[in-house]
Specification:
This protein is mainly alpha-helical. About 80% of the residues lie in helices and about 0% in strands.
Length: about 90
Amino acid sequence: MKLIVLGVLCISLLLLIYIVFRKKLGLGWLTIFGAHLALSAVAIYIVNFTGLAAQTYIPLNPMTIGIVMTLGLPGVALLVGLKIIILGG
């Protein structure tokens, strides 16, 4: 099973590299991705340590940062709302 997962991972990586070089995307997309990643982490950090969200703490992990990267600031509001409603703060 591990061999199958490793094979799929390797094939996916090779196809991704092929697409990046075939479309001549260059390394500009890495800059944009890095900026979104950093800004997402900063947004969650601001919510956690300024007390804007009534004693809620959103952990900085790949899942929460990915949500904020995808949805932007409404993603932060979504995470705060879920934390308050489902987990009770």
